[in-house]
Write a structure and sequence with these properties.
Pfam families: HupE_UreJ_2
Number of domains: 1
Keywords: Membrane, Transmembrane, Transmembrane helix
Shape: globular
Number of helices: 7
Mean pLDDT: 88
Protein name: HupE / UreJ protein
Low-confidence stretches: none
InterPro entries: Put_HupE_UreJ (IPR032809)
Distance between the termini: 46 Å
Largest sheet: none
């Protein structure tokens, strides 16, 4: 049981590590267009991320594919930027195409999993499957915590400052974009 907590806690810390805030930025951008009543749709997105992350960890863990770390470090801020800009593009549309954000979320999960894969292979030297599952549960739990905090903070801001949902989306998307741009410039590979 202690091994379960080791990998579960590692998953929690991987997402909640403020030094590696890319996860948090992505989740904030992803959550911006949603309200508390839409939690099921948001939970599906969070789970898609976890599935993508776990799939790329599995691929890396068993040595089926290796991806250049410079590409990974570049694609992480690209995916955050897409997640931040997509709600702005969808602002005036009655019905948004959710397939795009589902795809971006899965893509970000895959990319981020490849980024963490080398480290995970080092600590999972027996290439066991259960640690991958335990780690994924920690990631999913941490993401749900972040999304809940974002939804609560959004509801408080919208209520106390009398912000419309549109204003909230513009504010959050702009803030995430501003925080993401230095990461993009720093990891520019062209």
């Amino acid at each position: 049981m202690s091994e379960f907590w080791l990998y579960f806690k590692l998953g929690l810390e991987h997402v909640l590590d403020w030094n590696a805030y890319d996860h948090v930025l992505f989740l904030v951008a992803l959550s911006a267009p949603y309200q508390v009543a839409q939690w099921k749709r948001l939970l599906l997105l969070v789970t898609l991320f976890t599935l993508g992350h776990s799939l790329s960890l599995l691929i890396t863990n068993y040595g089926w594919l290796s991806v250049s770390s410079s590409w990974i470090e570049f694609l992480i801020p690209v995916s955050i930027l897409i997640a931040a800009l997509f709600p702005l593009i969808q602002l005036d549309k009655q019905e948004s195409d959710q397939r795009v954000i589902y795809g971006v979320t899965l893509f970000f999960g895959l990319i981020h999993g490849f980024g963490f894969g080398r480290y995970f292979v080092q600590i999972n030297d027996e290439q066991a499957f259960m640690p991958l599952l335990e780690f994924a549960l920690g990631i999913e739990t941490a993401q749900v915590i972040i999304v809940l905090v974002v939804l609560i903070v959004a509801a408080l801001f919208r209520t106390t400052l009398k912000l419309t949902q549109r204003d909230w989306i513009i504010f959050i998307s702009g803030a995430v974009t501003a925080l993401c741009l230095p990461m993009l410039v720093e990891n520019w590979i062209f």
